[in-house]
């Protein structure tokens, strides 16, 4: 089940490469002025997906601990996330 979730998550989160390439092409062509208002309106609805999914999982009975355990597709990715969080905490402590 986790493998299916990771497959769907990775495919969905990698689509931004296609969107970014399309935007750069349109920017190069000088056609961004006509679609920028639409993109600005759509942004507030598209970028809530992670929060929505986590909320749904909690409503279905998933604990916060379980949610954190399955938030990464591999153990290495989870370890890297923990290391990055620790680095951020150290950086904030120095300030």
Question: Can I get a quick summary?
Answer:
The protein has helices spanning 2-13, 15-29, 32-46, 49-59, 64-69, 75-94.
Secondary-structure map with pairings?
Layout: H1 2-13, H2 15-29, H3 32-46, H4 49-59, H5 64-69, H6 75-94
Helix amount: over 70%
Which percent band covers the strand fraction? under 5%
Question: How many DSSP E strands?
Answer: 0
Total DSSP helices: 6
For the termini, the CA-CA separation is 42 Å
Helix and strand string, N-terminal first? HHHHHH
Q: Which blocks of ≥5 consecutive residues have pLDDT under 50?
A: none
Total of domains: 1
Q: Gyration radius, to the nearest Å? A: 18 Å
Query: Helix- and strand-based class?
Result: mainly alpha
Mean pLDDT: 79
Inertia-based shape: extended
Biggest pleated-sheet summary: none
Your description of this structure?
The chain is an all-alpha fold and 95 residues long. It has one domain (2-94). Helix content is 83%, strand content 0%. It is built from six helices and no strands. The chain has helices at residues 2-13, 15-29, 32-46, 49-59, 64-69, 75-94. The longest helix is centred in the C-terminal third of the chain and has 20 residues, at 75-94. The chain starts with a helix and ends with a helix. The mean pLDDT is 79.
